[in-house]
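User: I need a structural model of Transcriptional regulator containing HTH domain,ArsR family from Halapricum desulfuricans for a docking pre-check later this week. Nothing fancy, just the predicted structure tokens so I can convert them on my end. Input:
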Amino acid sequence: MADLRDDLVYERQADLCQVFSNPKRLKLLELLQSGDEYSVSQLQGATDLPQSTVSRHLQLMRDRGVVHKRDDGVHSYYALADDRIATSMGLMREILADQLEREPGAPSVQP
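Assistant: Understood. Predicted structure tokens for Transcriptional regulator containing HTH domain,ArsR family:
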């Protein structure tokens, strides 16, 4: 019989995986991997996404504990909440690079 706590862990894991399931969020996370803090306007400028889209994705990532926000006056700055997020993104890139290497005509990906 499954333990109810296991179900909660699976739900939380699925919530975390949801963060990585959107190309726009991946683009934002890639920028945040540098370890620097970014304002919404900086992230918007670097991704060419509308401000509302950037804010919506950042809120979801905050809710999932992937990024944290620091307020400074009228500006808010975002950074990864845990360095292991960058590590997990790197692992996913390595897996993708290996998979694409086996596909004829697929683009190459740098891990």
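Before docking, keep this in mind: Residues 1-102 form a domain with the Arc Repressor Mutant, subunit A fold (CATH 1.10.10.10).
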